Structures are given as C-alpha cells and as structure tokens.
Batch of 3 targets.
Target 1
Amino acid sequence: MVKTQLKARDIKDRATLHAMSNVPRHLFVPQNMKSQAYIDAPLPIGNGQTISQPYIVAFMTQELRLKSTDKVLEIGTGSGYQAAVLAKIVDSVYTIEIVKNLAMTAKDRLQELGYTNVNVKWGDGYHGWPIKAPFDAIIVTAGAEAIPQPVIDQLKNGGRMIIPVGPNNSVRQLVLIKKTENKIITKNLIPVRFVPFTRENEKNREHKKIP
Ligand code: SAH
C-alpha cells in the first residue's frame, strides 16, 4: 500500500510514510473487510460511515506539516485509523466522534493497540474540544458545508487545519487553512468525496421524524 499507493503518487513526507507503514490498517476495519484493508479505496466501517482511502489519509496528514511536539485535534474518529496514524507522528491526539457506537469501538481499539497518546470523545465536533485548545493542527475527516467557526477559533497562530468543504451529496474541495496573527488564509487543494459532517440537533430532528 505504501509503495504503490503513496510513494508512487506524491506522498513524500517521511513521518507520514513511516506512520502508515506501521499502523495495521486491517485491525481498523470490520472482520468481513479485512482482506480488502489495504486496497486503494475507502471501506464501510458500519453505521453508514467509511474509513478513508489510504491515499487521502496520507495526503491530509502530509499537508498538516506536523512536528513531533504537536497537539492535534481530529473531528470524525470513525474507525480510529487516522487518529492512530497521527499518534505515530505527534505528541498528543484529541479525536471526536458523533456516533456513540463508533466512538466507543475506536476508543477500545486504540487502547488495546497501545495508542496511549490518543484521547477519544463522543460528541458533536462542531464545538471542537475547548478545554484542550488551542491546537497546533486540526483535521476534519467528515465533509462540511462550511468551516465551523468554533473549530477554527481553536487553531493556534501558526497552525494548519485541513477540512473537506462543499455541498452534501457532491464533490467537495479539500481546504487547507493557515492561521497567522489571527488572519486566516485558505487554499483549495484537491476535489474529494467524504461522508457528511452532521450536527447533533440535526440527528435528533431526523430521529423524531421516524414514527
Ligand atoms: N477518520 C476516520 C474516517 C472518518 S468518516 C477513520 O480514520 O476511520 C467520518 C466520521 O465523521 C464518521 O464516523 C462520522 O460519524 C463522523 N462525524 C460526522 N459529523 C461529525 C461531527 N459533527 N462531530 C464528530 N464526528 C462527526
């Protein structure tokens, strides 16, 4: 996977390549998906969600230009795979997942695999993780219609954030955000498809519609 899908494309960052060579992706997918864990595609992880394609995980990680001393926030824990990749590179990772079942499974999995520098929280990532802020880098792994202001507020000056932005059910742009002296600079990187960034209250509304 690392050789043919990452190095053969434009992934050059040594820390990213090292991390992805060392995180066992097959332990982050459901039992019936294990034989496909290293293919060049996203895979279903239950609850209608997906683990991202390896290349996208690598691309987003590389764009964050991480340092080993960084404290990173991830929104959209999913399987915990991206969090594990980050945990191989940086000091501490804080990750938030809105689907309780996924949050709990990822938390247990990361603990069992010995990723002691990852903290998993079940909740709506729209609010970020204020008591742990500010962060050196922030990665949002669900597709948002707009950049959540509370999250961007929790990015350090000099920090980088990456987030897929665009309308639901459509191709989005992977947006890189740099914050310097409280000014925000954004750059569109590549078109991507991501499961939607949902909100807690929207979920409740949906549930109430079911008779
Ligand atoms: N990074 C994951 C894949 C993410 S899929 C991995 O490595 O496996 C996107 C995830 O974002 C889904 O699990 C979805 O439930 C979650 N999500 C969507 N909206 C969210 C929100 N507002 N806060 C936290 N998590 C959210």
Note: Helices lie at 2-7, 14-22, 54-63, 81-89, 100-112, 149-152, 200-209.
Target 2
Amino acid sequence: MDVIRIEGGSFLQGRITAGGAKNSVLPIFAACLLTEDECVIRNVPDLSDVRYMGKILEHVGASVADEGDGVWRIRAAEVRPEAPYELVRKMRASICLLGALVGRLGEARVSMPGGCVIGPRPIDLHMKGLRKLSCQVEVEAGYLRVDGHSRRGGDVFLGGRYGSTVTGTANLVMAAVRTPGKTRIECAACEPEIVDLCTLLQEMGALIEGVGSPTLVIHGVDSLKGVDHSVIPDRIETGTYLIAGALAGSGLEVVGAPPSLLGAFTDKMEEVGVGLEFNQGVWTVHSAADRNPVDLITLPHPGFPTDLQAQMCTLLAITPGISVLTERVYPNRFMHVPELQRMGADLAIEGASCIVKGRKSLSGAPVMASDLRASAALVLAGLVATGETWIQRVYHLDRGYQCMDAKLRAVGARIERLPDSEMPKHLLGEDN
Ligand code: EPU
C-alpha cells in the first residue's frame, strides 16, 4: 500500500487539468449494456473505480477494452443478469447495473450493496421506482431479484427524506428507456452526471424529455444503438483544485468543469472572498488576503455538492471566524473531522453540522484517509500545514482522483507517493 508525504508551504503555480467525471462514467458504462452494438466512451479518467466497473461489465458478459488516452470500447453482445456479492461489495456504485440489466434483459439479480463509511446508503427508492414500472422486486439471501418481464411505464415520485437520489434516478431511467409505454419520474436527480447519462441514452436512440429538470418523461423503445460519447469534466475534481488554488495558489489555473456545473460552489467561494475567473475554458483562482467565514448547506444539485464539503472544511479551517457546514445529503459525512483535528483544526460536530473556528494555520501530522473526499481534504490540508503530513490509506484517493499527487507536484507542491514501508515506523497508524 502507498502513503503520501507532503511538505507544506509551497506555492502552486501553473495549470492543472481535471479529467472526465467519475460519477458520470460509472452509470454510463452500465448503460452500454442496453445495446448489443459497440459503444465508444471518451474522456474516461484512469481511476480504480472505473477499472473495477470495467471488470464488472466483463463479468456480466460484455467485452471491454481500454484503448488508452481515456478511450474505452464496450460491446455487450450477450449479457447475464447476475452481479454477485464478491463484485458489488467492493464498489457501491455497481448497483447502477440494476437498471441496465432490467432494461436489457427484463430481469436482474444483483447483490444488495452494504453500508459505507459516509453513512447508511439504502436503496429503497431504487426498489420503489422499479415496482412502479410493474417489476416484481424481492430481497432474497442478500440479493435483489427483479422480475421485469411484464414491466410497463408508470408514474414514479423518487424523492426521499434527503431529496432525490442520483444512482436511483440513473437506474430508473436506464430501466425505463427500454420499458414499453410512458414513464414519468418526479423528483428526479438533476445532477450534471444524470444529464450526461440521459444525453448518452438519447444519442443511443432513447426518448427522454425534461433532461436536467426534476421531471423526466420517458417513452420506452424496443432497442438502442451504439454510441460514441465523451464524458463531461469532473466538477468535483475541478472544485477540489480550485480550493487548492485558494489555499496555496498564486494564480493557479484549472481546466475542468465550466461555471454552469459549479454555480453553488463558486458562489460560496466568492462569499469566502476567493477570486475566480473563467476564460475560454480555464479557471484562474486568486487566493484572498482576507477570507470570510460562511454558512454552507449541502443539498442535491443545484445546491452545494456534498462531494465538496470535506475539501471546503479544510479551506474554512484556516479562514478567520466561525463557519458552519451542514450536511443535508449524508448527515454523518464528517470522517475528515477527527483527522483534520489532528492537524490542529478547531472543529466540532453538532448533529449534522460541523462548526469550524478558523485558525491561523494547521500543522502537519500523520493522518488516515477514510473515504474518497475525506482523503482529498487531507491532501489540501497538507499543502498549507507547517511541516510534514503523512497520509495513509491513499487507495481511497485513487478511486476518484487520477494522479492527484503528480498533478499537484507539477504545479509546485512538495508531495510524493511512497510505499508504506518507507513511512517512519513511529508515524504508522493502526490499520484495523
Ligand atoms: N437515499 C435513500 N434511499 C435510496 C437512495 C438514497 O434514502 O434509495 C438517500 C441516501 O442515503 C442519501 C441521499 O438519499 O442520504 C442521496 O443519495 P444518492 O442516492 O443520491 O447517492 P448515490 O447515488 O448513492 C451519488 C454519488 C456520490 C454522491 C451522491 C450525492 C455516484 C457513484 N455516487 O451517490 O458520490 O455523494 O450521489 O451527490 O454517483 C463520491 O463521489 O465521493 C460520492 C460518494
């Protein structure tokens, strides 16, 4: 296993490019199962989650080729309806196979995903949606078994206690595009990654109205055709590097998601006092001399994304004054908090909120990554902390950030990836 070592205090200058959106690619790969034709997917980031999704597609019968340069070819001439526990348990997002298998074969047997460090992640809304399409859905020995041979369009309200569901919407749309009749989904997720999926499906011949809005109307078709599609840029990776620029940059440039995908985030950054400019596809971020504390609430899109909350916590931890971060998507998503506290951040969790008392500085420490976005928050903290930060369990980072250490090194960060055998023994944390 690798660790990351960062020596804080360097200035970031130059240009970083964000890759394709991980959370678009995963359902888009699944959607390739909806046709027998070949699909070419471009701008695919080289991430462990993406490679894993490729393996899952192979397991259900597709031929999958990574052609290099972010181009993947997927052909699902024949498909099996089963995704076993050994595969699904390692990546929760593999549940997005469900809708594609139902759409293609009229049946699916997919292992129920387990819990996750960011909190309970039920799939009741996915099940409710499929039932509204007249599918029979049962949980049996840890598996979700769907019989959709008599499926037909229906009206579905897909809102839950935390609002819409992203993967639930993806699943229902993928099932509905090849379900006879008209399906109407209310409270559909509006995330850009759902728009990207719907765009791909439309290019394949699906009939979907209202894309990007909370009401989707889908007219089922008998078959879909192959596609050549380029994935949208990753707005979360883009936002993470914009925060890096705000913390440690000196006119850092970031090529990635455009303002239309980042409205709530850039609005908050401006309130903090960070100067952002977007010109001809390139962001320039100016770190503010005087930053202001903010209240921030994560919400489904177009609200502030939960996937940028941990990174924002790092920025606010060294912004004078008291900020409040409230989670309305995953009320327990604060695993970064105890690790940032080890670096001197003054943070307190109150229910679904984190109260941040901004400090002048953070100090480097050995810390443990617990999930993808928490890892990114720790890397950002390491960039500005005094002294050395060692981050263990960086495989979490590799799930969603392609070569983050190399990208940051290229713009001046003193960051390196080492085998954990090179980490001083007295700094090693308990790996239990
Ligand atoms: N929920 C339910 N019932 C359901 C489904 C969801 O109550 O049937 C709840 C969840 O427990 C949560 C909320 O609804 O409180 C939102 O969950 P959602 O289903 O939208 O999340 P997801 O589809 O499982 C995707 C991303 C996450 C991102 C969330 C929210 C993928 C593969 N994952 O998860 O990404 O945080 O949407 O935007 O698209 C990440 O990239 O780090 C990540 C965790």
Note: The chain has two domains: 2-19+233-428, 22-219.
Target 3
Amino acid sequence: MGNKDSAAGGARVAVVTGASRGIGAQIAKALADQGRHVVLVARNRERLEAVQQEIGADKSSVAACDVSDGEALAQVIDQVVTDHKRLDILVNNAGITRDNLLLRMTDAEFDDVILTNLRSAFIACRAALRPMMRGKWGRIINIGSVAGNTGNSGQANYAAAKAGLIGLTKSLAKEMAAKKITANVVAPGFIETDMTAELPEQVRAGVLTVTPMRRYGQPQEIASAVAYLASEDAGFITGQVLTVDGGLTMS
Ligand code: NDP
C-alpha cells in the first residue's frame, strides 16, 4: 500500500468526527501518518487539542462541534473547505449508545442515537460531496458496527442507526462511483474503548467467549482498515462493508 498519498495542490484534507478519543483519535493519527491534514471534530475541545498535540499542530486542526446539530456540522465542513480549498476524505465515526430494551426505550433514547450516529453522516456527506467532486477524488468511510448486520438485544436504536449507515453508504457509493468518490463502511466488533468500558462486567467477559480470537480489538486495528480504504490503492472498492471483528460474525 502506498503510504504517503499525494495530491496536486498539497496534502489531502481529511475530516474525522469523534476524533477526541477511542477509535476516532487513532483514525486521525493513521491518516496524518499518511501525510494528510486532519481536521479533528468532537464536542470536547480540550481532548481534541490533546490529540492535535500528539499529531502535530501543522498536520491537524480542531473544530469543536456537536454532530447531532446538523447546521453546526455543515458549517464545520464548509469552514474546512474555505480554509483549505479542498476536502478529500470524510470519516463519520462519532457515535453514542443509549441502550435499553425496546419495550422501555424512550423517544429521546431513540432520537439521540439516530441524530448522532446516522443523521450526522448524511449531513456531513452532503456537505462534503461538492468539494470532493471539484477535486475529482474522494473517500468517505462511515463507521458502522456488527450490530448493524446482526441486531443486538438492548440496542434497537443503535442497530437501526448502524444498519441505516449501510443503506446510506451503498446508495451514495452508487451515486458517486463515476466521480472517483468511494463510500464504504468499516464495521467493528468489540473494541477496547470508553464505549465498551461502560458495559457491565458480565457482558465484557461474555465478549471473549463469543469472539473467536478471544480478545477485544484495539482502536488501531480499526484505524488501519480506514486508512487503507482512504488510500489511493483502494480506488476500486466502493459500497462495501469491511467487518473488523476478530471473527465474531463470520458466517
Ligand atoms: P468512544 O465512546 O470511545 O468515543 C466516541 C467519540 O465520538 C468521541 O470522540 C466523542 O467525543 C464523539 N462523540 C460522541 N457524541 C458526539 C457528538 N454528539 N458530537 C460530536 N462528537 C461526538 O467510542 P468508540 O471510539 O468506541 O466508537 C467510535 C465509533 O465506532 C462509534 O461510531 C461506535 O458506534 C463505533 N463502534 C465502536 C465499537 C466498540 O466496540 N468500541 C464497536 C462497533 C462500532 P466527545 O465526547 O468529545 O464529543
């Protein structure tokens, strides 16, 4: 795989949402290692600045934003294009869980997850397409979940959002295929982050018994898959779901 991708007119510019910690922070680092300028998006500015320090202020910038606020998110994308005159890579990674059995799930628990995990991707993709079309190149990677394929007890909201991301991504892939803009989903299994640290101990232990590799994945292992799909070498891959789950859902 060609590591240092180049583009006429300077470094390719990437936006990564949910880049303040966990999987998103590792994705941002992996893209910066490929020579991209990375715009780090999440709510917590302090944590974003800590990630920026690790990457280097010359290789990254910070845009604090709540992605469930569609107008604010579209403004962030527009500002990136104004500042850098381009946008090449978009990684929609920001995500939350609000777990509850469907019987007890509130409207707010459903809506929060749909707004943050699914609608945000639609808004960001829509805002990113024109600059990508102008650049005649683009990579969109949406972070799904194995739950989007399998469903999960207690996660009707989350699984619906992640399944929705697959439909969104495949539709977008078809619309943009002729424009050299690819769109793919990376679907993680259980990965060691704050999100899975919140799970009850019994569930955490159960993960090891159902995952054939008998371990949690590391955020870097998702980041490598994203970096590949964002590379020049992945130009003929579009509309795919790349599952990275230690064998959890192989059939
Ligand atoms: P974390 O909880 O560790 O991190 C979530 C990230 O999303 C943070 O950077 C957080 O930043 C950001 N975020 C959350 N809500 C918002 C919001 N409203 N606006 C902007 N940013 C937001 O999660 P992971 O790193 O584990 O998960 C990353 C992605 O991977 C998610 O989409 C998740 O669904 C998916 N995934 C994770 C799995 C796992 O096992 N960990 C498994 C399958 C999928 P801040 O709080 O600063 O806003």
Note: The mean pLDDT is 96.
